[in-house]
Design a protein that fits this description.
The complex is a heterodimer of chains A (about 260) and B (about 300). Chain A folds into two domains: about 90 residues, Elongation Factor Tu (Ef-tu), domain 3 (Beta Barrel); about 150 residues, Rossmann fold (3-Layer(aba) Sandwich). Chain A has six helices and 16 strands. In chain A, the strands form three sheets. In chain A, strands 4-3-7-1-2-6-5 form a seven-stranded antiparallel beta sheet. Chain A has a seven-stranded mixed beta sheet with strand order 11-10-9-8-12-13-16, sandwiched between helices. In chain A, strands 14-15 form a two-stranded antiparallel ribbon. Chain A is globular. In chain B, β8, α3 and β9 form a beta-alpha-beta unit. With about 300 residues, chain B is an alpha/beta fold. In chain B, strands 3-16-15-10-9-8-7-4 form an eight-stranded parallel beta sheet. A four-stranded antiparallel beta sheet of chain B has the order 5-6-14-11, with no helix packed on it. Chain B has a two-stranded antiparallel sheet with strand order 1-2. Chain B is globular, with a radius of gyration of 18 Å. Chain B is about 30% helix and about 20% strand. Classes of the chains: A alpha/beta (about 260), B alpha/beta (about 300). At the A-B interface, β14 of A face β5, β6, α1 and α7 of B.
Chain lengths: ~260, ~300
């Protein structure tokens, strides 16, 4: 077996870090070497400077990367101490990250694809949608959020040249009222898909995976787990498999064939 | 990297290391991942992820949470079993030995029979191993693990079971309690070295849900928060036994490693820092060398147990 250590440590500089919603931030970093390497659905493990009592890195997937400018765009929710401190970084600040971590989306040409994102799952789903459009597919996008002020990505989804873009909020403050799965069911009855990609809360992904499986459609899901290293050394980010046993979210994922996951 | 002025090589119970820096089992995968960050052959030794004769699934998620200056884990010794371990990692590990870094294979079991079977298998399948570390202190398994090392008598029984099965050095990974008594019992049964400490059993509760933050009620605490507890235990154990010790616990700087050496450790393992800052181990080695130079010695062995306490 060939053991290929593909994760490296890179320094990065913050280009911008702005609030784009209630507790939602858009971070652009300059990291030229990684920007030309990283693939949609892969992630980075960020060291957030400033507090030695918090030793664990923050794993984040990204929305877009630009090899030309050497920049990577991320959107994250400030939910814990690490992401809160990340939100305090300003243009010109620097730190280091580990990447490219994990396996990204399996993007290939084909028929119509449905991209389903909930909450902080929006960035990697938009990265998948963009790659699928570039691969010549027609792509529909469903974006779900708790409430309008925590929604991000509609403008970006529309700019992709996606087929349909549907937005759902749990409280009905914007778009359709209810969970993203309602929009997914609606789109499934109207269109024929041969691929679904999804990232968001586990419950949502599990429901989307079931809809896809019942329809006999391939579904790729990007999972999130509590994670320490991000490069396969600690065995803490285990994902239970339907066939029994576990796989590592950081190395075997974060994108899994949804059929293989024990939801 | 290796100092011109200070001899950094040490002998951990027959495991001849070119410098005292080792890696703590479970925090270093099986080494190869770190080649993406630095040349792993700069280290004195690595200790592989605990492995049993047969595969273990480990515990459900979540297996990790962060607490103040530490993490807690409840991995539960997930491992592929001895055959798959050697098939997957053997070539890399043999190559690393060839590059001058000692490979210590950690062995796990649920019972005396399982420890014996695993040592027997690895002795046959892993000619690249410079030695074996017997893990009798994992806090995250229901059977075996820490229970096997909980008393001097239980620990001695494990050592007695595995000692005749290999002629290579056997290191025993100890739990964070009664280290003097248990250390003496292990020494009497022929342990070549002791490594301490394993993670400290701990608990973290989500006050909103009133549930454990991990899939088990308790888990192992590691990281900077436990360092000085570990230094005290190494010092107690050093005062009790004559065999060499490997100090483990929250090492994130050369000064942390130096504390272990002064407390009586011959080697020092970097643990959690490998996960949070993967280039830690070579940096700690370089800082340790600078410290040894600053102490005016020609040989780092002169500093082992040199704390004037």
């Amino acid at each position: 077996m060939h053991l290929d250590a593909k994760v490296h440590q890179y320094d990065f500089t913050v280009v911008s870090n702005e609030r784009v919603g209630d507790g939602i931030f858009r971070l652009v970093i300059s990291c030229p070497e990684l920007a030309s390497l990283i693939l949609p659905g892969q992630f980075m493990n960020f060291r957030v400077p400033g507090d030695a009592s918090h030793i664990v890195r923050i794993p984040l997937s990204f929305a877009s990367s630009d090899a030309g400018t050497g920049t990577i765009e991320l959107v994250y929710a400030a939910v814990g101490e690490g992401t809160r401190r990340l939100s305090l970084l300003e243009a010109g600040d620097g730190s280091d990250l580990l990447g490219p971590c994990g396996h990204g989306w399996n993007v290939r040409p084909g028929g119509r694809a449905l991209c389903v994102a909930g909450g902080v799952g929006v960035p990697p789903v938009l990265a998948a949608a963009r790659a699928l459009v570039q691969a010549g597919r027609t792509v529909d996008v469903v974006l779900g959020a708790q409430t309008a002020s925590r929604l991000w990505g509609e403008t970006d989804a529309l700019a992709l040249g996606a087929g349909e873009v549907m937005v759902c909020t749990d409280d009905g403050s914007y778009g359709m009222r209810g969970f993203a799965t309602i929009a997914v069911e609606k789109l499934f009855s109207a269109n024929e898909y041969d691929l679904v990609v999804t990232c968001g809360p586990n419950v949502m992904m599990g429901a989307v995976a079931r809809i896809a499986e019942d329809a006999g459609v391939e579904c790729q899901a990007s999972l999130e787990r509590m994670m320490t290293c991000g490069f396969g050394a600690c065995s803490t980010c285990n994902v239970a498999m339907r066939a029994g046993g576990y796989k590592a979210c950081c190395m075997d994922g974060p994108v899994f064939d949804a059929k293989e996951v024990a939801w | 990297m290796v100092s011109d002025t200070v001899n950094m090589s040490v002998d951990l119970g027959g495991i001849k290391m070119k410098n005292p820096i080792n890696t703590a089992s479970g925090t270093f995968g099986n080494g190869w991942q770190f080649e993406g960050f630095y040349d792993v052959s700069t280290l004195g030794a690595i200790t592989t992820k605990g492995c049993a004769a047969e595969p273990w699934d480990g515990n459900p998620a979540p297996r990790m949470c962060e607490v103040n200056s530490a993490i807690m884990n409840s991995v539960g010794l997930q491992n592929p079993g001895a055959h798959a371990f050697v098939e997957t990692y053997g070539e890399y590990l043999a190559g690393l030995e060839g590059r001058g870094t000692r490979v210590i294979v950690q062995v796990a079991g649920h019972s005396l029979e399982e420890y014996a079977r695993a040592v027997e298998l690895f002795d046959e399948l892993a000619p690249f191993a410079s030695g074996f570390e017997i893990n009798i202190s994992c806090p995250n398994v229901s059977k075996g693990g820490a229970a096997m090392g909980a008393t001097p008598k239980a620990a001695a029984e494990v050592m007695r079971a595995v000692r005749p099965l290999t002629s290579r050095p056997v290191v025993v990974k100890m739990a964070p309690h009664d280290v003097a008594e248990i250390g003496r019992a292990l020494e009497a049964e022929g342990a070549d070295a002791l490594s301490l400490i394993n993670t400290i059993p701990a608990m973290a509760i989500d006050v909103r849900t009133r549930r454990s933050r991990l899939s088990r009620a308790t888990a192992g605490l590691s990281g900077p928060a436990i360092h000085n507890i570990a230094v005290r235990m190494v010092w107690e154990c050093h005062n009790a036994v004559d065999i060499p010790l490997c100090g483990i616990g929250g090492v994130s700087s050369g000064a942390d490693a130096a504390e272990f050496i002064l407390a009586g450790a011959t080697a020092v393992s970097v643990g959690t820092a490998n996960l949070t800052d993967p280039t830690s181990a070579p940096r700690i080695l370089s800082e340790l060398e600078q410290w040894a130079e600053s102490q005016g010695v020609r040989d780092i062995n002169d500093l082992i147990g040199a704390a004037e306490c």
